[in-house]
Structures are given as structure tokens and as C-alpha cells.
Amino acid sequence: MTTTSLTGGRTWSRLPRRHVPVLATLALLLVLYGVGVSQYRAFSNIQVIFNVFIDNGFVLVVAVGMTFVILTGGIDLSVGSVVAMTAMVSAFLLQEGLPAALVLLIALLIGPTLGFLMGCVIHFFDIQPFIVTLAGMFFARGMCTFISGSSIPITDGFWTSMSQERIGNPSGNFVSISVLIAFAVVAVAAYTLAYTRLGRNVYAIGGNAQSALLMGLPVGRTRIAVYTISGLCAAIGGILLSFYTLSGAPLIAVGMELDVIAAVVIGGTVLTGGSGYVFGTVLGVLVLGVIQTLITFDGSLNSWWTKIVIGGLLFAFILLQRLIGIRYK
Amino acid sequence: MNHGRTGYRALTTHRLFWPVVVLVVMLAANTIYRPGFLSVQLRDGHLYGSLIDIVRLSAPLILVALGMTLVIATGGIDLSVGSLCAISGAIACLYISRQPDQNSLGGVLTALALALGAALVLGAWNGVLVAVIGIQPIIATLILMVAGRGLAQLITEGQILTINSDPYKAIGVGHLLTLPLAIFLALAAALVIAAVTRRTALGLIIEAVGGNARASRLAGIRSARITFLVYVISAVCAAVAGFMMTANVSSADGNAAGLWVELDAILAVVIGGTSLAGGRFSLSGTILGALIIQTLTTTVYAMNISPQTSLLFKAVVVIAVCLIQAPGFRARFARRRAPVVTQATVNDQPKAEVPA
Questions:
Q1: What percent of chain A has pLDDT over 70?
Q2: In this prediction, does ipTM exceed 0.85?
Q3: In angstroms, what separates the C-alpha of A175 from chain B's closest C-alpha?
Q4: Which of A222, A240, B102, B354 is the right S-S partner for B165, CB 3.0 to 4.6 Å?
Q5: Which residue from B147, B266, B306 is facing A311, i.e. has the nearest CB?
Q6: Measured between beta carbons, which residues in chain A are less than 8 angstroms from residue B276?
């Protein structure tokens, strides 16, 4: 308090400013939910919220990874394809008769490896993340169809039990195990960003990579780490998606990277890096999920309205970030 | 010896050297695989052959990539071109499908004008977001990329609009002077853009804005106006490309038309040697880049590999071309190969950077 009293007025007005985008997302989420509850009686059922989590658990995990990358000022376009590739590889290996534990291990290693390689290329050869991850996206999507041109069903016992296990109360409300895994990932990520050295380095690089380098922070290591983390999150997301659909399909999750980037931005993370929270990303994913649920409940609106609304929301939030003066290039 | 070495270095360091090598290698590989690849024959007054096909199919990509080149030269990026292709195609097809006589030239021209008008408005929207409000380009155009797909589907009501209009079809598959009309359209666009940017100061001004928008504003250039302009040009190019795509198949699909064309266009621009950081551009490089991408796709089809798997090859080519062009990679490679050259390479670096 003693330090803040010196610049009392400024600190008071600046401190909430960082939180305004997240608070705005929270307000939007509450408004959307309020609209849903007032319009449709069934919407107030707590299971509706649980379903939003069940349907978007894998998106949440991938968005958390993307938050790391965007916080450093980078971007990862490969996540959608990596999700599909992970699901595809696990489905294929299970079909070949490998034990579930081994398949899980292999599937979880592919994403981070690809992320690590992309991070190395970005750092050592100084090529734009946009182009490198675009190549990663092509590679992963190509691998999907290379493995199989059509969908592969998963019949493995472990996978089906993970898919069908319901954790709930006696009144019938439940969540799937995927939701718990997603929450665990969110908790670990939030802790990493807020309380560990790696997390602080991520913010520092996003704020100003040059200054971070001059301060002696391990810029290269951190930059490679965030793409590896994003790859790991995409791999976990792929596993969750294969739990959810019990299959691997070559064209699943096409364009998912855009939804994920939109969720991160709506959650208040600034695309030039340095400012944002995992909690905001969670809210961003929930906003997208609730919009989808609202459009499903309405019935008369078509699926393309989702895209138009997401575009409109992106615009509104970017304008908001601009108006409250969060630093842009 | 020394002189010959300089000549060799001048050739290999020319920014179009590697793209040309890649294109020639691919064409050669095709010819070895399929000896009839290079042959062009005259049938019914039209020229046919794999080479003609490659150029015809790459025409939409060339158009989009030309617009994208100007945007990237200002240091921006336009992700919305794919959605714009879908929207313009959808508007044109919707208007034509409502006409009593789909073959009337007047109706088709009105449809094209309407769609171009819509593209101008959407391009202006992108331009305002980037130049006036000052939003980061990748995000400003991401809005229209996501929402535009929805708009295109809204226009076609989620259906695939099929039309039966000969004048409109001609844009995609018609012929003029034995060559496909699409080639002439792309060529005309390239010549107009080249003339406007390279014969006037506009190109230089665009590069100045890309190099340093603030400095060029202080030097008396209206940076915001130039930035606005390139997004409008990009939108118009995308709209014409959208006409070609929909005319090729005589139908408009809001979901699939122009899907991923923004990524291909950005690739074409990067392969052509235009830096994503802005500040300089090469129109001929971009056209080469678009041809490389289309040749790659055609090659993969010809070798009976599934279209989706062609993405694997695309990934390899992208990384290879980017690595070859990356200063960081070249420096490392040069240092390891011959320490003597390092001095020259180091000396060359600032010179290469100067145009920015």
C-alpha cells in the first residue's frame, strides 16, 4: 500500500484497466445466459451449463495453449490440424491393436514434438510464426489423410469407458471426465502463468522481447517452450476430442484454430502479447459455447449465424480493447 | 575467377533465383514422370495442355495474391480474401439465378457490378479498421474472415446456388485468342497493378508505408490513406477471383468457395520473396509463387496422390522456400560451409535490408 500511495490516483485507475476486458467478457457471458434463461425455460437447468463444458472441453484445452503463444505475441495456426492428427493417430494405433496406455503416450508426444520443432524454426531461423505454424498446419492435416482417407472408429475399452463415464449428482446432472481433465489443464496453466518463472518470462517477452533479452531472460527457451506447450495442449485436446466422438476423422476440427483465436481474443488477451489471463480465455470459450447453445435452442436460426455473431463479438471486443487504450502496435 | 564468382553470387542472391529453380525442378520432375507433360496442342481453336491448365487454374490465386502482395508490402495482412471470394461469388450467382434470362449479358454485368460494389464496401471496412481505428491487420481481417463465411452462407441460404449462364461461365472457362479468358484477366490485373505501382510513385509510397508508417507520414505521405487503399484493392482482386472460382463450376457454395485461398495467397507472396514484415514487394515473384503452388497441386493430382495429402508436400515446400530465404538460415549455412564467404555475407546483409 505504501508504494501505491505515491502514485495513488494512477494506480487506482490503471489497475482495473487491465481487468476491464475480462470483466466485460464476464458481463457479456452473464447477459447471454440471462437472455437464454428469460427466453427458454429449459435453459435454467444446470445441465445446460454442464453441456457447454462437455461440448467445449477440448476447445478449452486448446485455447489455453493458444493463450501462452498469443501472450508472447506469436500465433499458432497448427492447433486445429494437430487436434485432428492426434485423434487420427490414436484411432489408427488402437485399430492396429496397441495397448491403450502406449497409444495415449505416443499421441501425447506427437503434438509437443511438432510444437517444439516449430518453435525451434521460429526462434533459430527467425521466420514469422504465422508462416511456420501454417506449414505445421498443412503438415498435420496432410498426415491425417495420409493415415486414412476416411473416419476410423474407436472401440477400445479404455476410450469407451472414458467417453461414457458420468460424474454427477443423484438428480441426474453430470459432467464427463473430459471436463475434469480440461479443468486440470486450466488450473495448471493459470498457476504456471501467474506464479512460475516461465509464466513471468512469457509476459515479459510479450511486453517487449528486446527488453526481455536485455534483462537476461531466456527469450529463445521461453519462445520454444510456448509452442511446445501449445502443441501439448492441442494433443490433449485431440485426445479429449477422440473421447468425445470415439473416432478419428481426417477432416475434423477444420478451422478450429480460428474459433480458438477468437475465444482467446474475446477473453481479453491482446494479440500483440503481454496482457491477458487464462481465466479470460475460459470465459471466451464459454461465451462461444453459450452462443452456440442459444442458437440451438432458438431452432429458427441457422448455424451460419454463429459465425456472424462471433465476427461481431470479435469486432466489439477489439474495439473495446482499443478504447480503453491497451497497447497496440 | 573472382569476377565469375561475383556473377554467380549475383545470380544466386537474386530474389527470384530460388523460386525459379523450384518451379523449373517441379516442371522437370513432371516431364520425367509424364513425358507428354510439356506438350501443348491445338484443338477446336483452343490450346490444350498441362501447362495451359496450370496457368488457367492458378489465375484466381494470382489475382488474390497480387492484392495480398500490396497489403503485405504495407506490413499488413488480409485474411478475409477467401471469405470475400465466397461473398462476391454468392452475390453474383444469386442475382443471376433470379434473372428471367440467365444468359442476358446485361444481367450478368449488373450482377458483377453488384458483387464488386459489395467487395468495395467490405474492403473499405477492412481498411477503416486497420487505417482509421488502428487495429492490428491480422485481427481486423480475421473478423471478416470468420463473419464473411457466415455472410456468404446467409446469402446462399446454406444451399449451393447453381446457375446456367453462358456469359458468366465464360469468366471461368471461356476462351479468347485460343487461350483461356481467365489467363487474360489475371494478366490484365497484373499489368494494371504493375503499371500503377511501378510506373508511378505509388509502389514506392506503399513500400515506404510498410517500412515505417510513422516516418513516411512525417515525410508527407498520407499513410492512412495508402493503407486504406491497399485493403480495397485486395478486396476487389479477391472479388474477381471469386467470380472465376464460381464461374468455373457454375455454382456458388458459401462454405467451400475460396476456402484456404488466403493461406495459399500468403504462401505465394512469401515464396515470391516479399517479406511479411513489409517494406518491399515483388509482383513477378508473387506470380511465380502462385504458379509454383498450382504446379505442386497439379503434380500431386497427376501422381494419383489424394488432394488432402498434397498438403504434406505443400508443408515441405513452404518450409524449404522460407528456410532458403531466411537470412538467419543463410548466415548459419554460409558460416558452416565456407568461413571466407562469411565476411561477404555479413557485408551484404545491410545492403539487402536497405530498401525497407
A1: 93
A2: no
A3: 30
A4: B102
A5: B147
A6: 128, 130-131
Q: Characterise B278 by phi-psi region: left (phi > 0), alpha (psi -120 to 50), beta (else).
A: left
Residue count of chain A: 329
Phi, psi of A275 (to 5 degrees): -140, 130
Q: Position of cell 472401440?
A: A155
Interface of A with B in 56-85 (CB under 8 A): 75
Closest CA to B265 of B282, B287, B248, B247: B287
Q: Which residues contact A235 (CB under 8 A, 6 or more apart)?
A: A82, A83, A86, A107, A108, A109, A110, A111, A112
Residue A252 per-residue DSSP state? T
pLDDT digits (tens, 9 = 90+) for A104-146: 999 999 999 999 999 999 998 888 888 888 889 888 988 888 8
A68 contacts A189 by C-beta, under 8 angstroms? yes
pLDDT at position A159 is: 84
Can you name the residues that pair with A168 across neighbouring β-strands?
A174
- State the DSSP code for A196: S
Chain A residues with CB-CB distance to B322 below 8 A: 125, 127, 131-132, 135
Question: Residue B285 in 3-state DSSP?
Answer: helix
Burial class (CB in 10 A: 0-12, 13-18, 19+), A249: buried
Residue B158: its chain A contacts at CB < 8 A?
A: 302-304
Minimal CA–CA distance to B152: which of B100, B207, B115, B184?
A: B115
Could you say which of A142, A261, A318 has the minimum Cβ distance to residue B308? A142
Q: Among candidates B67, B53, B91, B19, which has minimal Cα distance to B262?
A: B67
Do residues B88 and B272 make contact, with C-beta atoms less than 8 angstroms apart?
A: no
pLDDT at B5: 62
Is residue A176 classed as helix, strand or coil in its secondary structure? strand
Angle at B6 between CA B1 and CA B8, to 5 degrees: 95
Residue A176 · residue A243 · CB < 8 Å: yes
Contacts of B73 (CB under 8 A, 6+ apart): B206, B207, B210, B230, B274, B278, B279, B280, B281
> Do A25 and A280 meet the contact criterion of CB atoms below 8 Å apart?
yes
pTM: 0.81
**B243 or B47, which is more confident:** B243
Q: In this complex, do A271 and B136 lie within 8 Å of one another by their Cβ atoms?
A: yes
Looking at chain B from residue 64 to 93, which residues have their Cβ under 8 Å from any Cβ of chain A? 77
Dihedral sign from CA coordinates of B125, B130, B134, B136? positive
pLDDT of residue B340: 43
Residues B45/B178, Cβ–Cβ less than 8 Å = yes
Q: Considering only the beta carbons, identify the residue of B146, B313, B322 that sits closest to A131.
A: B322
- Give the C-alpha separation, B50 to B27, whole Å: 10
Helix (H) or strand (E) holding A274, with range, is none
Residue in chain B closest to A306 (alpha carbons) equals B150
Q: How far is CA A100 from the centre of its chain?
A: 25
Chain B CB contacts of A303 below 8 Å: 158
- The answer for A 284-323 residues in CB contact with B (under 8 A) is 302-308, 310-312, 314-315, 318-319, 322
Mean predicted confidence (pLDDT) in A199-204: 92
